[in-house]
Amino acid sequence: MEKYGAGPIVVLDYDPNWPAMFETERARIEHALGSLALAIEHVGSTAVEGLPSKPIIDLMVGVPGLAEARECCIEPIEALGYHYIPEYAAWLPGELFFRKGPPGPWTHHLHLMEPSNPRWETLLVFRDYLRAHAEVSHAYAEIKQALAASSREDIAAYRNGKTRFVEETTAKARAWRANLSGR
Length: 183
What we know:
The protein is an alpha+beta fold. It is about 50% helix and about 15% strand. α4 packs across α5 (about 135-150), α4 (about 120-130) packs across α6 (about 155-180) and α5 (about 135-150) packs antiparallel against α6 (about 155-180). It starts with 17 loop residues before the first helix and ends with a helix.
């Protein structure tokens, strides 16, 4: 069992402070990385107003190249209090993953990748669809809350339990975006 931080998985009601927490961290990362940070996005459930979430701010940082990022970005990000987790490369290929906070519960996750990584678009389209469709966001909240209760400390069970919903919703989100852009 892959344990979650320092205790059971908790999904909290939406906190209106989450966007400000993201903005604070975005500014710190932008300052630390300079021109290496092509874009910094707030993703994950804390990026969707009204959506209950694990209280972890997910940041996605776009960089020109992953090899250069390995050489130039790890140290400045770690200086901000993040811990680089290299073993996550097997689970999240094409990105560098960092956590911030005491050794669980974590307060921030940072996903550093090239914007051409397919996961970049996936995370953005899923976020944007949830922001635009309150009924889908509500259904996702119910799934997350039930999984948090049943998974307890098993983060893999929690994550895997969301997979079908996330994949189906992402497919709908891509169709929705294509329709919006007239493609």
